[in-house]
DNA sequence: CGTGAAATTGACTAAGTTCAATGGCGGTGG
DNA sequence: CCACCGCCATTGAACTTAGTCAATTTCACG
């Protein structure tokens, strides 16, 4: 069984190339809360997330975690730092234990990327990332707290059932107090209702959508 | 003279492919303050900046321009929206009049991107973009106004001579008042001096760097 | 010089965070 | 079975950061 071939990014690789890749890579498992890499670290290894959930965040001057994104497999992680020979711009921590394929980037010859199939996969990954970052910028620089929360409610109404408000607040980079206050405000204005089981029902979709569109 | 061949992105194209590209593209000049595209618009055209300076910004609920980046040639602009078939996430306006090559993206066959040289150029462009957005996020979500200004002083001390403070404030997404106040504060603390000709001299590099590192 | 834009300064406002107190609720152990 | 404990949610009040508004000064340039 060859696990590398199962990774979409490398599924179209020739056997010869798979061998080359195997020689310079290895799999490693991580437990929840383990750090894959820290912001500011120099890479040298290209990471491919195979299993688990990986949270990407930055740390501000007060030491608080600023949420950026969560990766689910399969995902190329931190490739920018490798390609550009720069430090990791954020920290990656496992929220749910998982596994990564670690590739020695320095040994990865450039002609590897000449393979059109690989190129396309990298383009896809980078495109995804530009999109993610673009959304982060929109969410954090353009939307107010209320708008962020309204958007989250419309896009993930079900998450309130499974995820504690304190964690939703963290994902939205908003204090739990602000989330609480905003939810009560939206309830008062009859835009939503929330029952005992944290089922969120949107009563006035037009109005709530208008808050962020 | 073939202008397409002069564009780095396409310099390695075969004559045949250049012909194909010519058939589905054209050059267009823009004056200062003209808009190349608006945030929210659907693309359909792939833009390559050939000449001039293009400012990318988003607009918040109050109608204010939130500065993202300025492009100088050569640059692929707004390709994300094309690749992902989504709306432009920001507005692009010419700050200095210029010219773009406009390519009909719908007619651009996918096999065009199979060309490894083109692929590499696209990867380069996307990488650059991830880096830009990553910096924007750092600047706007992690740094305080003071830190942003300190960083700008260290990285571009000479710009104060040529660019008005009001424009620097716009680039930093800070009000002119905040910039003014912060500069006087830094002068009071003897971190910098600014003479009549707007020459900024850093007196205490360690201290000023510590404000954002 | 005079004029208009830019810079400065002070007072106020807005948005959201922080801090602290309180209340609810579920799980646990006697 | 119930009392207790700890976590989470809620609420009010103070605080912080930066933006806004307005008045004044400075400055470049015709």
Can you tell me about this structure?
Two copies of one chain form a homodimer. With 213 residues, the first copy, chain A, is of the alpha+beta class. Chain A has two domains: 4-141, Jelly Rolls, CATH 2.60.120; 144-210, Arc Repressor Mutant, subunit A (Orthogonal Bundle), CATH 1.10.10.10. Helix content of chain A is 38%, strand content 25%. Chain A contains eight helices and eight strands; from the N terminus they run H-E-E-E-E-E-H-E-H-H-H-H-H-E-E-H. Chain A has helices spanning 15-23, 79-83, 116-142, 145-155, 159-162, 165-171, 176-188, 205-210; strands at residues 25-30, 35-37, 45-59, 65-71, 75-77, 91-104, 192-194, 200-202. In chain A, the strands form two sheets. In chain A, strands 1, 2, 3, 4, 5 and 6 form a six-stranded antiparallel β-sheet that branches. A two-stranded antiparallel sheet of chain A has the order 7-8. In chain A, helix 6 (165-171) packs across helix 7 (176-188). Chain A is elongated and about 65 Å long. The N and C termini of chain A lie far apart (49 Å). In chain A, 29% of the residues are buried. The model of chain A has no long low-confidence stretch (mean pLDDT 94). The A-B interface holds A 58-61, 66, 68, 80, 83-84, 86, 89, 113-116, 119-120, 122-123, 126-127, 129-131, 133-134, 136-138, 140-142, 144, 147, 173 and B 58-61, 66, 68, 80, 83-84, 86, 89, 113-116, 119-120, 122-123, 126-127, 129-131, 133-134, 136-138, 140-142, 144, 147, 173. The structure holds a DNA duplex (30 and 30 nucleotides).
């Amino acid at each position: 069984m060859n696990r590398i071939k199962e990774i979409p990014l490398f599924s179209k690789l020739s056997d010869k190339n798979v061998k080359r890749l195997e020689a310079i890579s290895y799999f490693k498992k991580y437990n929840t809360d383990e750090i894959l890499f820290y912001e500011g670290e120099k890479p040298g290894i290209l990471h491919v997330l195979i299993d688990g959930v990986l949270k990407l965040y930055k740390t501000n001057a007060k030491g608080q975690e600023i949420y950026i994104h969560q990766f689910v497999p399969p995902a190329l992680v931190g490739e920018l730092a490798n390609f550009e020979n720069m430090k990791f711009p954020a920290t990656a921590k496992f929220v749910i234990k998982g596994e990564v394929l670690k590739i020695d980037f320095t040994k990865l010859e450039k002609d590897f990327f000449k393979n059109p199939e690989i190129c396309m996969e990298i383009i896809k990954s980078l495109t995804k990332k530009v999109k993610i970052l673009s959304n982060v910028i929109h969410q954090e620089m353009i939307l107010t707290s209320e708008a962020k929360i309204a958007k989250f409610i419309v896009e993930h109404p079900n998450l309130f059932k499974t995820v504690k408000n304190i964690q939703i607040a963290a994902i939205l980079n908003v204090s739990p107090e602000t989330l609480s206050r905003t939810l009560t405000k939206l309830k008062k204005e009859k835009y939503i209702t929330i029952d005992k089981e944290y089922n969120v029902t949107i009563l006035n979709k037009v109005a709530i959508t208008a808050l962020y569109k």
